Amino acid sequence: MIDGMGLDRGTKVLVTAGASGIGRTIAETFEQAGAKIHICDNSDIALEKCSSDHPSWGVTKCDVSKPAEVDTLFDEVQKNLLGLDVLVNNAGIAGPTSPVHEMDIEDWNRTIEINLNGQFYCARRAVPLLKASNNASMICISSVAGRFGYAYRTPYSATKWAIIGLMKSLAVELGPDGIRVNAILPGIVEGPRIDKVIEARSKEMNLSFEDMKTEMISKVSLRTTVTAQDVANQAIFLCSPLGAKISGQPISVCGNVEVL
């Protein structure tokens, strides 16, 4: 874990889908740097564990695809943190793995609703709070699938491309208010989520799990996966004084994925 890079103690941070995986690691990294944390998640079990492990965190159950629940989330953030300096728009799902002509329309729509609409719903509520901050940042979690075509994963890739457009537009719009907006594009992040993706894709490609994973890693210049901590380190860098002049950038943390 990096040392916080001069992040102001007491920085007020909201991480969506922050009760597990990348989101939890990001929240823990900011906490270790002295930040005050609020998270949301749609899992009661994950939220309960976070509350036990991190009793100082504010927690809210929230499906970010539902505007009313996002409104409740931000009401609780304002009550708990008394403002906001950093929004980490992390919530997202992998979506279906399927040829497009066999894809269920509900699966497509659900991926769009969570991955893209959810970031919009959170951004629109966060901006008035961020405008009152002296060091405001928004981090949009995209993916390397936001810079490549991704066969059999079209809704996921489409949302991750769209998040780049959302980030770029917000960076231009909010820059005059001193709000930095960037996107992080993780590559193959170690953990159970990518294992499920590899398993599903291996079936579509008629390969074993291990062969599928080996093929994916062979397309990474550094021939490596990345960790949730790698992503968290980049997030805190962008929100620290060292990232004070960085905005409007899609930054890959992936070992240089060459193609999907």
What are the salient characteristics of this protein?
single chain; Rossmann fold; 2 domains; 7 strands; 47% helix
Care to describe what's here?
This protein is α/β, with parallel strands linked by helices. It folds into two domains: 207 residues, Rossmann fold (3-Layer(aba) Sandwich), CATH 3.40.50.720; 34 residues. The protein is 47% helix and 14% strand. It is built from eight helices and seven strands, in the order E-H-E-H-E-H-E-H-E-H-E-H-H-H-E. Strands 3-2-1-4-5-6-7 form a seven-stranded parallel beta sheet, sandwiched between helices. Helix 5 links the parallel strand 5 and strand 6. Helix 1 crosses helix 8. The mean pLDDT is 96.
Give me the secondary-structure topology.
Elements: E1 12-15, H1 21-32, E2 36-41, H2 44-53, E3 58-61, H3 67-81, E4 86-89, H4 105-131, E5 136-141, H5 154-174, E6 179-186, H6 192-205, H7 209-218, H8 228-239, E7 250-253
Parallel strand pairs: 1-2, 1-4, 2-3, 4-5, 5-6, 6-7
Helix pairs in contact: 1-8, 3-4, 4-5, 6-7
